[in-house]
UniProtKB/TrEMBL annotation:
InterPro entries, sorted: Acyl_CoA_acyltransferase, FeeM_cat
Domain N-acyl amino acid synthase FeeM catalytic core, chain residue ranges per copy: 34-192
Lineage: superkingdom: Bacteria
Record organism: Phreatobacter oligotrophus
Any Pfam family hit: FeeM
Name used for this protein in its record: N-acyl amino acid synthase FeeM catalytic core domain-containing protein
Coiled-coil zones: none
Length: 242
């Protein structure tokens, strides 16, 4: 069991790391290739995918109109990455919807906004040096949910990782594990009401908080609720400089 003092010390250490990390939207072809290569290395090491000749791991969801891909850099080096889909009635696209559509589809039909973070990877060597890097990366899901004013936050994870998301984000398993596209092992759906969860997470882990300025810098100007679509290229750079 983690004591209050130990938890506070942990949060401070991760907060220090968050201040060091350079969070970047992945936009260019070179940035995408670097992320896809890191994904491949991590997933192959875990035995989650089969080898391929390209040394890259990508899928059609990387080109969805409602996808945001991020790379976290430490001292100029790509340290981790995560991909986030903001699914809504306007853009009912997300990896989890393709597998758990019977569970999540009715939420979209009711007009809910769902945040689906996937392809969460951390460089093996840097994770040893910076144990808090995984938490700094998961933080992007919270930023996305704030940006999109999400109703429901979810995670699609291997069975052995469920405890991490339950402890960190108060998520609960939804249904039974299912086979997932391009992965060798079954995946669990975990979810939680974001409005009910958010303050509990912020109270326990202050490093999860973000400012509106940070959200806008990473996601672009916020559209109307349920219409969140990423800005790209020059438009994103112009918004960040404004």
């Amino acid at each position: 069991m983690i004591t209050v003092n130990a938890e506070s010390s942990f949060s401070r250490n991760v907060a220090d790391l968050v201040r060091r990390v350079d969070y970047r939207r992945v936009v260019t072809a070179a940035e995408r290739e670097a992320v896809f290569r890191l994904r491949y290395d991590c997933y192959l090491r875990e035995g989650a995918i089969l080898p391929n000749e390209t040394g890259l791991f990508a899928d059609d969801f990387d080109d969805a109109p409602n996808v945001f891909i991020f790379g976290l850099h430490l001292d100029g080096v790509l340290a981790s990455s995560i991909r986030v889909h903001v699914a809504s009635p306007a853009h009912p696209i997300a990896p989890a919807l393709s597998v758990f559509g019977d569970v999540l589809g009715p939420r979209i039909a009711r007009g809910e906004v769902i945040v689906d973070p996937t392809r969460f990877v951390v460089d093996q060597e840097l994770s040893r040096i910076h144990p808090g890097l995984a938490y700094a990366t998961v933080r992007m899901g919270m930023l996305a949910a704030e940006y999109a004013e999400a109703d429901y936050a979810l995670a699609t994870v291997r069975t052995e990782h469920r405890a991490f998301y339950k402890r960190l984000l108060f998520m609960e398993p939804v249904g039974e594990p299912r086979l997932y596209p391009n992965l060798k092992n079954p995946i669990n759906l975990m979810g939680v009401s974001f409005p009910l969860m958010r303050q509990r997470v912020y109270d326990r882990y202050p490093f999860m908080t973000s400012t509106r300025e940070e959200q806008d810098r990473l996601f672009g100007p916020r559209p109307e609720r349920s219409m969140a679509v990423p800005m790209t290229g020059e438009a994103l750079e112009a918004a960040a400089a404004a």
